[in-house]
Amino acid sequence: MNKKTAISIILAGILMGAVAGIGSYKVFFAHATGYYPGGGAGYDPDEVMKAILGRKSVRHFTDQRVPRETLEHLTRAGMAAPSALNRQPWAFVVVTERARLDRLAEALPFAKMLKQAPAAIVVCGIASGSAGSDYWVMDCSAASQNILLAAEAMGLGAVWTAAYPSAERIAGVRAVLGIPDTAVPLNVIPLGYPTGEDKPKNKYRAENVHWERW
Ligand SMILES: Cc1cc2nc3c(=O)[nH]c(=O)nc-3n(C[C@H](O)[C@H](O)[C@H](O)COP(=O)(O)O)c2cc1C
User: Fold this and answer.
1) Contacting residues for 201 by C-beta, under 8 A, at least 6 apart
2) Bridge partners, 189 (sequence order)
3) How far apart are CA 101 and CA 178, in angstroms?
4) Is the dihedral of CA 136, 139, 145, 149 positive or negative?
5) Does domain 49-192 have CATH number 3.40.109.10?
6) Residue ranges per domain, the chain?
7) Out of 21, 149, 184, 213, which residue is the most buried by the measure of CB atoms under 10 Å away?
8) If we measure between CA atoms, which residue out of 27, 38, 43 comes closest to residue 149?
9) pLDDT per position as a tens digit, 180-204
10) Is 72 helix (H, G, I), strand (E, B) or coil?
11) What is the pLDDT of residues 63-105, one digit of tens each?
């Protein structure tokens, strides 16, 4: 090794060390002071926005299975959603058995991707008749969106396929999964690792935003 190469290697090492050092200093500084540049609660706003803007309906999956802990995390994301009067009127059915996923695909005319998906989460609403129960669709929709965003952030792909409000589709999903009359399947969310075919759409329209008044 000549002198020039040795100096280049040493300089590259110093540079890499400095980059790593600044990175860990930023984390240390944020934890020590409670001051997180950009994200008040400590999130990296760029990363959060990346997951929100990068989310898309994914209908093409590889055959890689989704670990149980990952599916559990997704239900945790669902249950973190806001709900009217904090009623949390939801229940989740996690499905990974091939035969059951195929039967769900047969019950739902617009969910044929279930035949390829290694897993699905069915978000169900509990409309108890008590105060606030009219909100179950909104509450369970918020839970569903949390699942879709968490899936995107975890490198998974997912798509909302509707059961509610079609009586026929609700009955079909109920029959496959043994869902009692006290719960209504709002949707079926097929999940898996994306093949990369599905891309996010740019849906931002400045004319849909009214400032101060319509
Ligand atoms: C209430 C609701 C019902 C939907 N039902 C279906 C469905 O049955 N099958 C399907 O493939 N996609 C369904 N979608 C996904 C939409 O087609 C999709 O969100 C829309 O085309 C926008 O695309 P994006 O999710 O990639 O942004 C549904 C979405 C919502 C919110």
Assistant:
1) 56
2) 121
3) 14
4) negative
5) yes
6) 1-43, 49-192
7) 184
8) 43
9) 999 999 999 999 999 999 999 999 9
10) helix
11) 999 999 999 999 999 999 999 999 999 999 999 999 999 999 9
